[in-house]
Write a sequence for this structure.
């Protein structure tokens, strides 16, 4: 068993966070919404900029570090449902100075955003999950020296609505990362920038999490899917197999049906045993009070995968205000330097840090 030390950093109700060195002192800081928290103790809170508050949400469903303008300072990529716009915030390099926000593209309502270096260039591309619009991604334009220019190129890779849910999974094992959507997967071609990717409508994942994770659960050599229901009860895995005719099959298995609103998932070796654990939790009031299980207690959990057994361990659980959920974009990284990954959990219930103290003796 792992032991965690919980600390409330702020009662601010932003649902996304990130960890990076904001002020260039070599120490990782925590960013969440309109503020950043200075490491290593995260007690000093600094203003970034105003973030639109609307309908009990904030228009900030991702906080991701990227040096967009090539000045050597990490900026923030963000976007959300209400603003319908992908944006970046420029790090001014001076504590106390407000960050300017720039629009990248009005792409439609953004559920949240994930990032992956699709072409191996060393800089991740931006993949917003836009349920009502086709799947697209954005590539930072860099100059001859490799520095960001503040501009992006957009690539649309699907037709029709993307649906709720997205993940990066090499479905066919050919070494190229594919994109999983709620109702199927997009096969990456040899040139990911060359137009539409081939869509395979092989499953229906419901109100799928962002991300959908790929992991060979059973050791079969084929990549399976791990999916949370972001707006309903249920955490599942889908086992990849083959029918007699050679076609791909997907068998649905339950992991945990006791909770709802599993919106964000991570695979991380939390206990340093060489095996990945599944980390997730409830996004508190994901649709305010409109989802199944909205009034249930909240929590964060990790699961030992163990070939599909998915042994559950509770990190935190209880009523909001005493326990923490996982928000729409939580972060896992060793902040204390003890070698064990810690968890930063934002949400409408506040911003929490769970310091991973390592294994207990039991």
């Amino acid at each position: 068993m792992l032991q965690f030390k919980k600390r409330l950093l702020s009662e601010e109700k932003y649902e996304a966070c990130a960890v990076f060195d904001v002020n260039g002192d070599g120490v990782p800081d925590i960013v969440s919404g309109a503020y950043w928290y200075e490491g290593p103790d995260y007690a000093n809170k600094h203003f970034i900029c105003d973030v639109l508050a609307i309908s009990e949400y904030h228009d900030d469903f991702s906080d991701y570090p990227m040096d967009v303008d090539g000045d050597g300072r990490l900026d923030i990529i963000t976007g959300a449902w209400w603003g319908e716009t992908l944006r970046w915030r420029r790090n001014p390099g001076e504590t106390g100075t407000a960050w300017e926000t720039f629009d990248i593209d009005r792409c439609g309502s953004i559920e949240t955003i994930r990032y992956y270096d699709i072409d191996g260039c060393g800089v991740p591309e931006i993949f917003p999950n836009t349920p009502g619009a086709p799947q697209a991604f954005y590539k930072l334009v860099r100059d001859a020296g490799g520095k960001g220019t503040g501009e992006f190129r957009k690539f649309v890779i699907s037709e029709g609505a993307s649906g709720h849910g997205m993940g990066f999974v090499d479905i066919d094992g050919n070494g190229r990362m594919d994109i999983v959507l709620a109702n199927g997967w997009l096969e990456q071609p040899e040139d990911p920038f060359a137009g539409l990717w081939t869509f395979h409508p092989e499953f229906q994942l419901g109100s799928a999490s962002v991300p959908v994770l790929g992991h060979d659960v059973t050791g079969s050599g084929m990549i399976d899917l791990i999916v949370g229901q972001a707006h309903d009860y249920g955490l599942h895995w889908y086992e990849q197999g083959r029918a007699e005719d050679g076609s791909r099959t997907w068998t649905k298995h339950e992991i945990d049906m006791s909770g709802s609103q599993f919106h964000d998932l991570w695979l991380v070796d939390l206990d340093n045993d060489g095996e990945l654990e599944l980390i997730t939790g409830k996004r508190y009031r994901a649709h305010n009070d409109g989802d199944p299980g909205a009034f249930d207690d909240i929590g964060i959990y990790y699961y030992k995968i163990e070939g599909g057994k998915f042994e559950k361990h509770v990190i935190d659980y209880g009523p909001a205000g005493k326990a923490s959920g996982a928000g729409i974009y939580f972060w896992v990284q060793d902040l204390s330097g003890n070698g064990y990954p810690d968890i930063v959990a934002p949400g409408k219930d506040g911003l929490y840090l769970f310091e991973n103290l390592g294994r207990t003796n039991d």
About this structure: The mean pLDDT is 97.
